[in-house]
Amino acid sequence: MTQALRTFGRILARHWPALMAWYIAGEALHRVLIELAGFIGGLTTLGGLLLLPLAVAARLVSYVAMYLTVRPSLPHSRRTDAGGVREFGSATLAAILPFFAFYTAWGLLDADQIEFYQIASAIALADSGFELDQVGDRGGLISVGALPVTVLVIALIARLLFTRFAARLPRWTVVLAAYTEVLWTFMLFTLVARWWNGVLDWFAERQAVGWLQGIGDWFAANLAPIAVIWEGATWVFGILVAALIVPAAWLTVAGVIFGTTFDSTPSFARWTGGVARGTAMSVARTLVMRLEGLVAAVTVIWRGGPLLFGAYALAYAAWGLAEQTGTRGALLLVGAHESSFWAGFFPLITVAVAAVAEPLRVAIVATAYDGVIGRPHAGLDTRPSGLDAEASEVLVAPLDVEDEGSLGVVGKQEDEQDAVRRRLDDA
Predict the structure, then answer these.
(1) pLDDT tens per residue across span 176-211
(2) Which of 184, 178, 183 is nearest to 163 (CA)?
(3) Which of 196-205, 252-261, 297-306, 390-399 tops mean pLDDT?
(4) Which domain holds residue 108?
(5) Number of folded domains in the chain?
(6) What are the TM regions of this chain, as residue ranges (predicted)?
(7) How many angstroms separate the Cα of 4 from the Cα of each of 73, 315, 363?
(8) Neighbours of 213 (CB within 10 A)
(9) What whole-number distance in Å separates Cα of residue 289 and Cα of residue 94?
(10) What are the residues whose beta carbons fall under 8 Å from the beta carbon of 359, sequence distance 6 or more?
């Protein structure tokens, strides 16, 4: 516990200004990109749809920068070979999938898309003279259909092409590769969320659901104890989600950013076999390495032990209470005003409170993560974040199936490794 307190204090003493700066920069860029995507979406939905993922990426990049900033102050997780453009870029790529999953599950992706739609629809309606039949391909309405599916497929193909022709592309194409990664991930989670909402709506319209709701209403009206038990169970579930699942999710994101790896567990790459080569090998390598990193990051949750995770969950709950209290206090301090006033100042107030609170959250999560890594029996370690250059040595053997001319095949495959990693290595 003393070591954890020292680590926590060291993070805040050394990095709080930098953490605040990264958070404010990410939020400011997120806001600008939402407004810009909404404006473009009012003219063409496709154009706005291509810009909107960058708003989510702005927050992702800010959090990656915050966690990598505090890494030198973590006694068990810092590395002398970490740092630089390569680590930052590969950590961002590795964190895209878990961050988007978390972002979607907590409704933040939906909130961004609603705001995008409100801005775009207002512009489109005004330009069309408020004639709905004149809106056309404008207004920012994102639904399951040909447009998002087409964007997803094209972005995924482009990402595969960047991977396939890594050695032949100029260095600056790493930016396009990262963008296509963000774009296809954004569209995937958008389509999954839309599909899931459709499934829920379909179930809500079924007669059996209405029948079950009627039974529940009858119990609530006639058997008060059962209603109390049900409400209590719902309340407890919400508390468990807030107290356990949310901090566990942040611990997983931090584990991916820091590049968690197993000390002794065989790599997932050794499970890979078959006849993959060329582009398929590059894709398989990328997916396998990210799967291994994600599983290792999730393992951080329970390998710290119940005492460590319990202390972390309590600290996170205290942080959440303090953040809510601070926001409420700031709003009470400002006092009552017209709705037009709050429309402009409410986001500023919440961001100002978060600029103080978010460095605390990063310090809590990073301290807990370092505590797990420091446990002798955890069996976990860290590497420079993202895809490790040494991973190709593990994957070449199982993916190469030709005995004749194997050296040539291996050499060719090594020349066709992941595009983003190569460009970052050169940088």
Answers:
(1) 888 998 999 999 998 888 887 777 777 666 666 566
(2) 178
(3) 252-261
(4) 2-426
(5) 1
(6) 21-43, 49-70, 91-109, 140-162, 174-196, 208-230, 237-262, 268-288, 300-319, 339-357
(7) 12, 12, 10
(8) 11
(9) 9
(10) 12, 15, 16, 19, 20, 23, 66
